[in-house]
């Protein structure tokens, strides 16, 4: 009876949700809301993953119309009008879609409840050049960052090596570009610049200090915030990622007590005055033990489902906050684990082969209780289809790398 009452209360508060995206992050959002009886529709790009749309909790799957902001804004407005979606929550799950919602904030909030902050807030996490300024102004440790909009700017660099080249923004949906390109000398810097420039937005590259270390150096503070105050929060170690050097996605996470990470993360989110979801990523510098700010993600992050069984159901709580409800303070305890086995096998295998991870230690980390990223007993189809979808995506990336785009 209580479960039925909870489902009814959820649908009274949140009449429905439109999830932008189809990957495992979006799947977590769909399940979060669908398990509470909230109708969920998925809107994805044609080349996006289909995991979220295959969930039993997805009532409908639609494709994006058009490529630019104006067309997509009009598409969402028409959906609200045609299907009576006014008052539904709009939940983007990737950098590009979250940036779109932030830029179109005023227009979209006429139809939907928004969990994304407006552009004047969102841009500080979206643009790595501004993120570096934010870290400096708040006194949070961070790697030095220099904009290099042209190849000539990179060639003029006279500082120390190694360094990395990385995009300041990620405006493209589902483009599998690397997160960073390393360079250990001047010739390598120009080669990396050319590779990066071919895959990223023109003029958006930055040169950044390379913080050494790979495994067991990545940390995050993530929270649902109200006017900059972290109401529901989790501190975690991102133990493994794929690829292991500059990973596109985290594969194994565990919650931890790291007061320095939590303090710095709270400071960043408070400075932004954030209302909504945010993840602040750090890397521990083995040279002095400091935690250096790398990224600020103002959207759902990959492992947002890690503590849902402990009451930290981030998408649902974000919807309640957007609907004007009060959300009680919660903080995740240490020792909770999250795993995406499909990609973690590759990440763990590389560490085993390199001698950085004993086989027994790896097996201990993947057995026992943990929150699964995709597999779920009450929603089996996404888990069954993930492996062939992952292999097909991998084959496409290999083909592009070998032969170039079609």
Account of the protein in words:
- The chain has 406 residues and is of the alpha/beta class.
- It has 3 domains: 2-116, Rossmann fold, CATH 3.40.50; 144-209, Dna Ligase, domain 1, CATH 3.30.1490; 218-374, D-amino Acid Aminotransferase, Chain A, domain 1, CATH 3.30.470.
- The protein contains 14 helices and 17 strands.
- Strands 10, 11, 12, 13, 14, 15, 16 and 17 form an 8-stranded mixed sheet that branches. A 5-stranded parallel sheet has the order 3-2-1-4-5.
- A hairpin with a 2-residue loop joins β10 and β11 (229-242).
- The model is unreliable at 1-5 (pLDDT under 50).
CATH evolutionary superfamily of the largest domain: ATP-grasp fold, B domain
Strand count: 17
Distance between the termini: 55 Å
Number of helices: 14
Low-confidence stretches: 1-5
Helix content percent band: 25-40%
Radius of gyration using CA atoms only: 21 Å
Shape: globular
Derived structural class: alpha/beta
Q: Could you say what the CATH topology of the largest domain is called?
A: D-amino Acid Aminotransferase, Chain A, domain 1
């Amino acid at each position: 009876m209580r479960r039925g009452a909870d489902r009814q209360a959820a649908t009274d508060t949140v009449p429905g949700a439109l999830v932008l995206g189809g990957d495992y992050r979006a799947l977590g959002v769909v399940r979060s809301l669908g398990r509470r009886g909230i109708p969920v529709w998925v809107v994805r790009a044609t080349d996006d993953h289909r995991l979220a749309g295959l969930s039993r909790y997805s009532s409908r799957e639609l494709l994006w119309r058009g490529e630019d902001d104006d067309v997509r804004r009009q598409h969402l407005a028409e959906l609200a009008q045609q299907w009576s979606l006014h008052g539904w929550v709009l939940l983007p799950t990737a950098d590009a879609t979250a940036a779109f919602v932030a830029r179109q904030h005023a227009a979209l909030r006429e139809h939907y409840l928004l969990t994304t902050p407006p552009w004047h807030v969102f841009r500080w996490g979206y643009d790595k050049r501004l993120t570096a300024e934010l870290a400096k102004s708040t006194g949070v440790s961070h790697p030095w960052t220099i904009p290099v909009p042209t190849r000539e700017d990179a060639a003029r660099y006279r500082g120390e090596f190694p360094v990395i080249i990385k995009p300041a923004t990620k405006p493209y949906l589902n483009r599998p570009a690397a997160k960073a390109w390393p360079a250990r000398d001047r010739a390598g810097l120009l080669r990396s610049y050319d590779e990066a420039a071919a895959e990223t937005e023109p003029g958006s590259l930055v040169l950044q200090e390379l913080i050494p270390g790979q495994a067991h150096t990545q940390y995050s503070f993530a929270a649902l915030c109200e006017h900059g105050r972290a109401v529901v929060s989790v501190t975690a170690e991102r133990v493994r990622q794929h690829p292991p050097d500059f990973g596109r996605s985290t594969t194994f996470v565990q919650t931890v007590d790291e007061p320095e990470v939590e303090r710095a993360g709270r400071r960043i989110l408070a400075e932004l005055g954030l209302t909504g979801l945010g993840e602040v990523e750090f890397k521990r510098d083995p040279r002095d033990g400091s935690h250096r700010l790398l990224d600020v993600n103002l959207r759902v992050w990959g492992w947002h489902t890690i503590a849902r069984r402990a009451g930290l159901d981030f998408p649902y709580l974000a919807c309640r906050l957007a609907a004007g409800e009060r959300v009680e303070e919660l903080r995740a305890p240490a020792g909770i684990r999250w795993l995406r086995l499909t990609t973690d096998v590759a990440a763990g295998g590389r560490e085993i082969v390199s001698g950085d991870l004993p086989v027994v230690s790896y097996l201990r980390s993947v057995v026992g209780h943990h929150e699964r990223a995709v597999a779920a007993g009450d929603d089996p189809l996404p888990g069954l289809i993930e492996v062939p979808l992952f292999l097909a995506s991998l084959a496409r990336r290999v083909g592009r790398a070998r032969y170039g785009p079609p």
